[in-house]
Amino acid sequence: MMHIVVLGSAAGGGFPQWNCNAPTSQAARHGSEKTQARTQTSIAVSANGVDWLLINASPDFRQQVQRNERLWPEAGELRHSPIKAVLLTSAEIDHIAGLLSMRESQAFTLWATPRVHAILAENPIFTALNPEYVERRDFALDETWPVSGCRRELGLTIEAFSVPGKVPLFMESRIRAGSDLAGSRDETIGLKISGGGKSFHFIPGCARLTAELRDRLRGASLLFFDGTLWRDDELVQLGISSKTGHRMGHMSISDADGTLAAFADLDVRRKIFIHVNTTNPILIDDSPERRAIQAKGWEVAEDGMEIHL
Ligand code: MLT
Ligand code: MN
User: Fold this and answer.
1) Structurally, how many domains does the chain consist of?
2) How many CA atoms lie within 13 A of 69 on its CB side?
3) Residues lining ligand 1, judged by CB closer than 6 Å?
4) Is the peptide bond between 204 and the residue preceding it cis, with omega within 30 degrees of 0?
5) What is the pLDDT of residues 209-248, one digit of tens each?
6) N or C: which end of the chain has fewer CB within 10 A?
7) Which one, of 291, 298, 236, 289, lies nearest residue 262 by Cα?
8) Are 253 and 229 in contact (CB under 8 A)?
């Protein structure tokens, strides 16, 4: 058995984002029955229901733990956490900022690619994670390996693979003007997580569905996938920003080169959008956009969603 708990399902900024007054954000802020507020994307996975692997450390980590009793310290222990390991899929703020709330001398293993570890190592604020407690370990892409936490096997295996993405926003100024923002192969990754004979894929950010990714995902049983934007020019249309999805490293859902079209012939059994931006109309339960994704067999992740495989 593998347990998956969606701790957070929104893109960077959360839903509603603090400074956003788009109609979707307003609906969430005012408690509309047609939507549900969401924290920034993170999931927890466990093979035994006791020891947990956290995938990405959201800025909302503290709130997410508070809401999920399974992640509370065990009764009778003065200091304890069921979270034995954290694995990062990129060094974006919405994937790493939660590490700063995990600094209270608690042991866990921090898994990331060499590139993501290098970004953390360059930021002295992360030395707040005391190396006497937090072991930083890296892994290679395209290999299947058993993930451990605090030196114990968690009963889960991981295969990480490169996904088209972008360097973190806060690293963009380091890239020479005019050069590519895609970063290195291990800058942005996707995961196949397996346990108890079952598996699922987790890809919270993806700029393009390459032929290689298509082959990898064909016939997959469960997929969480980048649902940031409904359309590539969503922020431009709303008058919020000049940035397109392409510029941000996220494919859109509805454009001709978007997710609905890209997955039309891929036979993925269960498909769930996650990392959904505060402006995306699929967040509204009865919107035409929600109906359009449902008609193509897609769901939208919600905080608190649980899947047991
Ligand atoms: C993204 O997913 O594009 C980033 O989280 C954006 C950000 O860091 O604000
Ligand atoms: Mn993000």
Assistant:
1) 1
2) 1
3) 11-12, 92-94, 169, 205, 248-250
4) no
5) 999 999 999 999 999 999 999 999 999 999 999 999 999 9
6) N
7) 298
8) yes
86 with 185: CB under 8 angstroms? no
Domain span holding position 174: 3-308
* pLDDT reported for residue 42: 99
Domain with residue 261: its CATH number is 3.60.15.10
DSSP, res 85: E
- Number of helices followed by number of strands (H, E) in the chain: 9, 14
| pLDDT, tens digit, 9 for 90 and up, residues 32-86 | 999 999 999 999 999 999 999 999 999 999 999 999 999 999 999 999 999 999 9
**Which distant-in-sequence residues (6+ apart) come within 8 Å of 129 by Cβ?**
99, 102, 103, 110
* Pocket residue to mutate for ligand 1, from 116, 163, 203, 248, most atoms within 8 A of Cβ: 248
